[in-house]
Amino acid sequence: MSKLAAIVGESGSGKSTSIKSLDPKETYIINVAGKELPFKGSSKLYNETNRNYKSLSLAKEILELAKIISKDAPQIKTIVIEDSNYIMGFTLINKALEVGFTKFSVMAKDIVALVQGLKVLRDDLIIYYITHPEVQKDGEDIISYKIKTAGKAIDSQIVMEGLFTVVLYTHVETKGDKTEYSFITNRFNKYPAKSPLEMFDEIKIPNELSLVNDAIRDYYA
Questions:
Q1: Residue 101: its pLDDT value, please?
Q2: Alpha-carbon distances, residue 18 vs 80, 91, 93 (angstroms)
C-alpha cells in the first residue's frame, strides 16, 4: 500500500515551499489550482515536458493519473497533490446552480473515493494531499483548526482528518527579526496534527517534505 499524508496550512505558511526539498526526478506534482509554485526555478524543474507535472482539478481524473504513475512510472516515488481543497471548491462552483444536497453527497463520495484509491497504489509511493485549514473561532479567539472542505454539508458526511494516518500542520513563528517555518507532527496547542507513535522525534520539524519522506520510509521499512 502507498503512504498518504495531509499537509495543512494557511496561504504563506510554507506548505508549497516545502516541495522545494524534494528530488524532481522522483516527484510528480498534480496542481489543482494551476498556480505557480513559490520557489525559484520551479517551472524548469516541474513541467509536462519533464513528465512530472500536470494541472487537474477533478477527483476522478487525479486518481486516474495517480494510478498511471503508480503502474508506468516506477522512478516516481512521491506524488504531491497541490491545493487539494480546490477539488471540492471548483466542483462546488461548477454545481452552483444545482439545488438540494445531492451535489454534496457526490462531492463527499468523490473525495473519499480519491483518498481511498490513492492508498492502494504502489508500495513505495508517498502521496501528499496539500490543503488549507478552516479556522474555528469563538468570537476573536481561535478554538481549533480542521481540514477545509466545501462546507457543513460535506462535514456532516465525512471527517477529512479521519481519512489520513499522517496529518501535519504548518506553523509560523517570528523570533526577533527571524521567521521560522515548521511542521507540527502531533497535537499541539490548537493544531489537530497526528502521526503514528515514534514516526517523528519532535513535535516541530523543519518544513521540508524530503525530511517527512525519510521519516515515513524509515518508519515503514
A1: 66
A2: 11, 27, 29
Tens digits of per-residue pLDDT, 85-134?
A: 888 777 666 666 566 667 777 777 888 889 999 999 999 999 999 998 88
Place of cell 497533490: 81
pTM exceeding 0.85? yes
Please provide the average confidence, as pLDDT, over all residues in the chain: 88
**DSSP H stretches of helix in the chain:** 42-45, 59-72, 85-94, 102-118, 152-155, 209-219
Residue positions counted in the chain: 221
Dihedral-angle region of residue 185 (phi above 0 means left; psi in -120 to 50 means alpha; beta otherwise) = alpha
Contact call for residues 2 and 123 (beta carbons, < 8 A): yes
Phi, psi angle pair for 208, to nearest 5° = -125, 120
Query: Which CATH superfamily groups domain 3-219?
Result: P-loop containing nucleotide triphosphate hydrolases (3.40.50.300)
* 191 beta partners: 188
- Domain parsing of the chain, residue ranges: 3-219
How far apart are alpha carbons 61 and 144 in whole angstroms? 32
The pLDDT of residue 160 is 82
